[in-house]
UniProtKB/TrEMBL annotation:
The chain crosses the membrane at residues 7-27, 64-87, 93-113, 134-153, 159-178, 190-210. This is CDP-alcohol phosphatidyltransferase family protein. Keywords: Membrane, Transmembrane, Transmembrane helix. The keyword Transmembrane applies. InterPro entries: CDP-OH_P_trans, CDP-OH_PTrfase_TM_dom. It comes from the Bacteria. It holds the Pfam family CDP-OH_P_transf. Gene3D superfamilies: 1.20.120.1760.
Amino acid sequence: MIGFYDYTVILTYLSLLSAVTGIGLAVAHHPLLAILCLMFSGLCDMFDGRVARTKKNRTAEQKGFGIQIDSLCDIVAFGILPAVITIVVCGSVWYAVLIAALYVLAGLIRLAYFNVTEELRQQETDECRKTYTGLPITSAALIFPFFFCFLDIFQRAAILHGALLVVMALTGASFVMPFHIRKPRSKEQWALLGIGLVIAAGCIFVWVRFRMRIVR
């Protein structure tokens, strides 16, 4: 078979599988479960590069392959999956589809721009990147789950839909804005992981309450 299948790419593959599972759950009207898939994809993305760098004898082809599948996976997990969740939650109305489409487009542009600039940067220096230009698309793994933790606040569907679309529009716009964000250091990444676990617990709590209401 073509491609690579060693341990350095397993997390990226798992991230994609989780994202596709989340899309299926969203279409089946299980948005909270889809959000958990989004968070699992984010967890895999957080560690895939670190795992890949443990293999010191990777060939140039293996490194290039890893970079390509990472970006391809990111557009599905953090671009298409949140868009599908939003469209399903908002009832497939035209303005929700439009905002979701623009969100995915912004994510695609951001990933392509990052790939090009990163390739040029690596030709000039071996130093690790210290800042990002624009909001990383992987931030969707925390932004949207955090929003869904507060579903009980939105008593009316129109308010919920409007708030979700505003979050998506602002997040997408932030992908292509030319501001700089410092790349999280190791300790900060662990802090983000802790925050993610708290948010995941909040989403599970909301899902359990939702299921209990259906049973009643």
